[in-house]
Design brief:
heterodimer, A: MetI-like fold, 9 helices, B: alpha/beta, 38% helix, binds adenosine-5'-triphosphate, binds magnesium ion, nucleotide-binding (chain B), ABC_transporter-like_ATP-bd (chain B)
Chain lengths: 253, 283
C-alpha cells in the first residue's frame, strides 16, 4: 500500500501542477471559455450534466468492452498463426506492417458503405486499431525464448507443441502484455472514432453534438471521460499482468 | 577395462550362457567427431571420441575448458548431429534421437514461471508420465536436498546453489535411466560442494543409475567414478582412460589414501599438460 502511494504521488503532483498552471493562465490572460475553458469550468459543466453524460459514457464503455477483447483476440490469433506456421509469417508479415499505414479514420466511411451503421463496422474499426500492437508484441515475445531452456526441452524430448505451450508461450507473456496495454489505450479512442461514423449515443456522438454548438467546455468533459476510461482499462490490464506474470523478479528502481 | 568388457561380450555370444547375459552398455559413444563452421572458419571441437557407460556405472569426463564436453552431451542428447560416429543406448542406435536421456545443463536453466516443484517435474511431464505419484516423490526429494519450504517458490527467489540443486533434482527425477550431468556442482561453495559430493555418492550407491558426469574437479571425479576419461584440449579426444579401483561403498576417507593421492597427482599432471598445450597453441 505504501509503495503504491510512493509510485502514485509524483504523477499526481505533476497533474495538479499542470492544472493549476492552466487555471492561472486562463484567468490571467482572460481566455474566452469557448476557446479554452478553465479546469473549474470543466468541472462545473461536468457536475451540471452528469446524468446526461452518463448514458453516453455507458454506451462508449459497452462498445469498448466488446471491441477491445475481440481486437486483442484477433491480434493473438494472428501472432500464434504467424509464429507456428513460418510460411504464413513470410507471406503476411509485410502486409501486416503495411496495414498500419492506412489511417483507421480514413477507413471509417468505407466501413459504413460496406457494413451499414450497426455495431459491426464499429467493432471492425476498434479491432483494426487494437490488433496490431498485440500481434507484433506477442510475435516478438514468442521468438525470444531462452536458448538454453529451449535446448533443455529438446533434449528432454519435447515436441513442437510442448515447446510452444511450456516454453514459448509463458516466456512471451511479459511482451504480450506490453502489447495489450498499448491496445487498451487505443481501444477507447477507437470506440470514439467509431461513434463518429454514425451513432445515436456514445461519447463520440456527444462530441460531435457539442462541436457543432461550440460547447468547448463540454468537449473537454468528453476528453476527460475518454482519458479516465482509458486509464481504468489500462489499470485492469496491468493488474491482470501483475497476477499472470507474478513469477518475474521485480526490478528495484 | 575395455578389454575386460570385450571379453564379457564374446562370452555372451557363445550359446548356452544365456543366463549370464550382461546387458549391453547403457551408453556407447563411437568415433564421434564434430566441427562448427562460423564465418567460413571451421573449428574442430570433437575428434573421434569413443567412450562407454556400462549399466549402473558412474563415468566421468575431465578435460580443459572448451574441449567440447558440453558439445558431446548435446550430441548424445540428440540436440546436435555429429559429423561422424554413432551413439547407442542399451544396444540400440539412437544417434540424433531426442528424449532418451535425463540431463542437467551447465547453467541451471530452470523455468522462471514454474514453481520449484513444477520445475523438478517437467521431464516426466514432457514424457507424459502420470504426475500424481511423481509430485509426492518430488516433495520428498526436495526436502532431502534442503529445499523444503521452497516447493512453491519461483526460481529467482533461490540462491545459485539452490537453483543448481533443483536442476540436479530435475535430472534425478526424470524418467530416463541414463543421467548426463554437466558440472552439477560448479556454482557451489567448497563446503556445500563436498557435502553434495558425499550426498551424490551415497545416493548413487543406493540407486545405481547409469551416469555420465562432466567435472573440472579431479578429486570429485576420483571419489565418485568407476572410470574417468581424460580429454585433450580442443579438438577434444580421449587421451586417457582410467579405471578407479576403490571398492564400493566408498567413503570420503579414501581421499586420504596413498592410492588416491597417486591417481590424483597423475590426473592433475595430465590436465596441466593439456592446459599448457592449448595455451601455447593459442598464444
Ligand atoms: N553452436 C555452436 N556454434 C559454434 N561453436 C560452438 C557451438 N557450440 C560450441 N561451440 C564451440 O565449441 C567449443 C567447445 O564448447 P563446449 O561448450 O562443448 O566446451 P566445454 O568442454 O563444455 O567447456 P567448459 O568446460 O568451459 O564448459 C567452444 O570453443 C565453443 O566455442
Ligand atoms: Mg561445458
Amino acid at each position: 500500500m505504501r509503495s503504491t502511494w510512493k509510485q502514485l504521488w509524483p504523477p499526481l503532483v505533476a497533474v495538479i501542477f499542470l492544472l493549476t498552471g492552466w487555471q492561472l493562465a486562463v484567468s490571467l490572460f482572460h481566455v474566452e471559455a469557448w476557446i479554452l475553458p478553465s479546469p473549474t469550468d470543466i468541472i462545473r459543466e461536468f457536475n451540471a450534466n452528469a446524468t446526461g453524460i452518463w448514458v453516453h459514457t455507458l454506451a462508449t464503455l459497452r462498445l469498448t468492452l466488446i471491441g477491445f477483447p475481440i481486437g486483442t483476440a484477433v491480434g493473438l490469433i494472428i501472432a500464434l498463426l504467424l509464429h507456428l506456421l513460418p510460411w504464413t509469417r513470410r507471406a503476411f508479415y509485410p502486409l501486416l506492417i503495411l496495414s498500419q499505414n492506412v489511417p483507421s479514420i480514413a477507413l471509417a466511411p468505407l466501413l459504413v458503405i460496406w457494413f451499414g451503421f450497426g455495431l459491426l463496422p464499429k467493432i471492425i474499426l476498434i479491432t483494426l486499431v487494437c490488433f496490431f500492437p498485440v500481434a507484433v508484441a506477442t510475435m516478438s515475445g514468442l521468438a525470444q525464448s531462452d536458448g538454453i531452456m529451449l535446448n533443455y526441452m529438446k533434449m528432454a524430448g519435447a515436441g513442437k507443441w510442448q515447446i510452444f505451450t511450456k516454453l514459448e508461450l509463458p516466456s512471451s507473456l511479459p511482451s504480450l502484455f506490453s502489447g495489450v496495454k498499448i491496445s487498451a489505450t487505443y481501444a477507447v479512442m477507437g470506440a470514439v472514432v467509431a461513434e463518429w461514423i454514425g451513432a445515436d449515443k456514445g461519447i463520440g456522438y456527444y462530441m460531435l453534438l457539442q462541436k457543432s454548438a461550440y460547447h468547448t467546455d463540454r468537449m473537454f468533459v468528453a476528453i476527460v471521460i475518454i482519458v479516465l476510461l482509458s486509464l481504468v482499462l489500462f489499470a485492469i490490464i496491468a493488474l491482470l499482468e501483475k497476477w499472470l506474470v507474478r513469477w518475474k523478479p521485480r526490478r528495484n528502481s | 577395462m575395455s578389454e575386460e568388457t570385450q571379453i564379457q561380450h564374446s562370452t555372451t555370444e557363445t550359446p548356452g550362457s544365456s543366463q549370464a547375459v550382461p546387458a549391453p552398455p547403457a551408453l556407447e559413444v563411437k568415433g564421434i567427431s564434430k566441427a562448427y563452421t562460423e564465418r567460413r572458419r571451421v573449428t574442430s571441437v570433437l575428434n573421434n571420441v569413443s567412450l562407454k557407460v556400462e549399466q549402473q556405472e558412474f563415468v566421468s569426463i575431465v578435460g580443459p575448458s572448451g574441449c567440447g564436453k558440453s558439445t558431446l552431451f548435446h550430441i548424445i542428447g540428440g540436440l546436435e548431429q555429429p559429423d561422424a560416429g554413432t551413439i547407442s543406448m542399451n544396444g540400440s542406435l539412437v544417434t540424433g534421437q531426442r528424449g532418451e536421456i535425463s540431463y542437467m545443463p551447465q547453467q541451471p536453466a530452470l523455468f522462471p514461471w514454474r514453481t520449484i516443484e513444477d520445475n523438478v517435474l517437467i521431464a516426466g511431464e514432457i514424457k507424459g508420465v502420470p504426475q500424481d505419484q511423481a509430485r509426492e516423490e518430488a516433495r520428498h526429494w526436495l526436502a532431502k536436498v534442503g529445499l523444503s519450504g521452497f516447493e512453491r517458490a519461483y526460481p529467482h527467489m533461490l540462491s545459485g546453489g539452490m537453483q543448481q540443486r533443483a536442476a540436479f533434482l530435475r535430472a534425478l527425477l526424470a524418467p530416463q535411466e541414463l543421467m548426463l550431468l554437466d558440472e552439477p556442482f560448479s556454482a557451489l561453495d567448497a563446503l556445500t560442494r563436498s557435502e553434495m559430493q558425499r550426498w551424490l555418492l551415497e545416493l548413487w550407491e543406493e540407486n545405481r543409475r547409469s551416469v555420465l558426469f562432466i567435472t573440472h574437479n579431479i578429486e570429485e571425479a576420483l571419489l565418485l567414478s568407476n572410470r574417468i576419461y581424460v580429454f585433450s584440449g580442443r579438438p577434444g579426444s580421449v587421451l586417457h582412460t582410467v579405471d578407479i579401483p576403490f571398492p564400493r561403498p566408498r567413503r570420503e576417507e579414501i581421499t586420504d589414501s596413498p592410492e588416491f593421492l597417486l591417481l590424483k597427482r597423475q590426473l592433475s599432471q595430465w590436465m596441466r599438460e593439456e592446459q599448457e598445450k592449448s595455451a601455447t597453441t593459442k598464444g
